[in-house]
Predict the structure.
Amino acid sequence: MDVLGAWRAFVNVSEHGSFTEGAAATRIPQSVASRRIAALEKHLGERLLDRSSRRVTLTRFGRDMLPSAKRLVRLAEAMEDEAERARLSPLRLAVPDACGVRDLAVLDADARRKGVYLDFHPAPPAERAELVRSREVRAALTAVPPDDGTWSVRLGLAGTADPPVRTVHLESLRAGRAPLSARRRRIWIQPEDDVPHIRDRVFRMRDAVGLQPAQVTVAPSLVAATAEVVGAGDLLLCSPKQAEDLGLHWRPVGDLQVARGFGVAAAIGDDAERVRTRLREEIARCLGAHRPGRDAGPADETTAGGGR
């Protein structure tokens, strides 16, 4: 028996003095209202309504039960309102500060269509993890090794010139081998990639191929790194999507496979699962997660990296 539905029907029928009007107020057919109240009376062992006259009236037992029934119905309605507000309450989500405004806006719109309301907090990797621990956000897209993550974003090098080669090799940037105009070109690592599983691998490869230490540098911000790329002809370690958004030409690195990995951390497990499962594809699009066949360059050569 739907106990709450039966009490709601009882309250409305008693207030309207009619099964027809009470059922309409409850938004159920008259026959359903009648059955529910009858089942409630059977459950309680007493009559709630007197049906002997044309107008429905309360029995003595019904009059005694009506105040409590009204409190129950009001409490149920209040709880339903609270539940709706809780469902619409934004889920504060820490995201990479490298995500573009349009990408976040599209993610927000896609999430709303799935009944998830997001409130973004852009931050670098270490800060995102701390925001979850301090419960300043409900969930965060955390930086993890790509094999451990839900999403993986392939990284390569991007510059202002469109090189006629398919793949960049770091050794081509050595001062002794590169043309004069390309000497000491730097590779800039943005804050999003200043994590051990990316930064340390790039530094090790820098040393292995004989680049100067200053040729691979962690930038204070993506803006600062991009300014060096645009103004000085340097290269930015980034994803294909970032390069496209910044108007740069991207190539994979032939002798170094690096990728961003992203997982979800949350103070409450349900929030993590909600983000991970319900928004998996939408977050992948926002991050520019790698899709096979998308990242190839225009040429077939795999020799020295291009530049200007």
Remarks:
- DSSP finds eleven helices and twelve strands in the chain.
- The CA atoms of residues 174 and 211 lie 5 Å apart.
